[in-house]
Amino acid sequence: MISKFKLYITSVALALCCVSCLDKFPEDSIPFDKAIQTVKDVDLAVIGIYDAFKSSALYSGNLTLLPDLQTDFVYGVNGNTNVYGDIWRWKNILATNTDIEAVYGSLYMVINRCNFLLDRVDNVRKNVTNDEQLDKLDQCCGEAYFARALAYSELVKLFCKAYESDEDAAQQLGVILTCHYGGNEKMKRASLKDSYDFILEDLDRAEELLKIEEDYPGNLYDDNHSPYFNEYTVHALRARVSLYMKNWDDAIKYSTKVIESNRYRLSSCTNAITNGVSHYKYMWTNDFSTETIWQVGFTVTSYGGALGRIFANYDYVSLRPDYVPAEWVINLYDNNDLRVTTFFQNQTTSYGLTWPLLIKYFGNESFIENRILHVCMPKVFRLSEQYLIRAEAYVQKEQPEYGKAGTDISTLRLARYSTYGSGTTPMNKDNAMDIIEQERVKELYMEGFRLHDLKRWHKGFERKPQAQSLENGSSLKVEKDDVMFVWPIPQHELDAPGSIVEPNESNK
Per the annotation, which location comes first and is thus the protein's main one (predicted)? Predict the structure, then answer.
């Protein structure tokens, strides 16, 4: 029964280019009221939700890569394959762009799976009396609420304007909100405020259902880099969403819950875990660390996209990157910042170009041993982001706390630098945001944050040609608040029967 359900979900994903992402099962599929009947069925449905996050349109591909490719982080090189070319050139980013359609459709696929489970679980619960099984149902619901909140948080980040205030957000377009699989909810966009409120309500539910009661006694390496949601993934997303909503107090509150939980520790760039490989580098080469709060779980027989392919295209003989790092990014790192050697490595390509290529995503070593290149597990939440969130919130609040922000930046740098002078980061009104913005670039490079960061900071960017970069796209100046900071709503969603979905400015 559930396997047929999962097969149907897969077939829907292939058809997203021609129907609304909110369309449901066809008439000849498993009837809705027969699809999930037991606790085991519910558990399998949750596995299906986790599987949906493996999509190469999401964290192991488009959702991570496109927002950074679109900005000033990389340059297309002469001879590249033109993959993601329209996005990188900031031209022809149309409502029919298949890469954007895939992100939109895959996020709503996650939401539809969550709604399907949540609509059916009460029917299962009424026939269960065993406390352990009831707890299992609560856990599954918590995971579904969190997954739905996560998917909606990505939709509002990409397809909506930045959140300025409650009053402004109430007037801005959000996303289509749907909380039932079998309902007849209107295909109409809610306000941006209502969209964020929906996310927060789901996070409230998830926090209660995924709460960890006991104090943490465990081994960091046993319990981290988990492929499953828990109370602290909820807090991590709540901190991120609060930052985006400019709710500085909540951003501090929830990031602190993660930081002070003692469940996670920043991975050191100086201490070796094995054979001279630092804990920090091992996080990228082996998907194993003390600071990963949640990563998408891959195995050599079940994995998603290849994040590192466009930066190497290695075929066991030569390297043919489509994109190389921007010089200004590499120059941003201090001489004793060990992230630079973890992320970049000088290589001579088959184009004759010698360049510091991005090796951050070259691939998990166990996958490489199985001749699977450029595949690694996307780290959606890491402890370092929580320090950056809290530092930014400290300096943005009505009464800034520059000393506390400086302590958070220092803590992060002490884990990343070979030596860090006095170990303190003096921050004040004039330099605080510059330091934080640069640290987000250095720590979160090519993890999908740059486009939204520039949007919410109301900053533009400029590209200037660098060695062997493509002529078309290398010279580009984008002003702040350009309409293309907000992606167009896919055309198939606007044209779907019964749709009253309003377009974005970028659709016009």
Answer: membrane
One-letter identity of residue 355: W
Residue 223 has a pLDDT of 54
- Listing DSSP states for 420-437 in one string gives -TTS-----TTTHHHHHH
Global pTM reads 0.93
Phi, psi of 77 (to 5 degrees): -105, 155
pLDDT at 7: 32
Give the three-state DSSP class for 417: strand
- DSSP category for residue 299: B
**Using an 8 Å Cβ cutoff, are 75 and 466 in contact?**
yes
Q: Which two tokens stand for residue 354?
A: 């010698």
The two tokens of residue 370 are 């199985």
CATH code for position 218? 1.25.40.390
Residue 47 CB coordination number (10 Å): 13
Q: Give pLDDT tens digits for 145-159.
A: 999 999 999 999 999
Which domain range does residue 437 map to? Answer: 212-228+244-443
pLDDT for 352 equals 86
Residue type, 160: C
pLDDT at 8 over 60: no
Place of tokens 């679109």: 70
428 and 504 share a domain?
A: no
Please give the average per-residue pLDDT across 111-119, as a whole number.
95
Q: Nearest to residue 454, comparing CAs of 464, 469, 444, 465?
A: 444
Query: How many domains are there within the chain?
Result: 2
Position 23 scores a pLDDT of 53
**Whole-number Cα distances in Å, 93 to 56, 98, 484:** 19, 10, 8
Does some domain include residue 99?
yes
Rounded distance between C-alpha atoms, residue 115 and residue 29, angstroms = 17
Q: Is 191 helix (H, G, I), strand (E, B) or coil?
A: strand
Judge whether 381 lies within some domain: yes
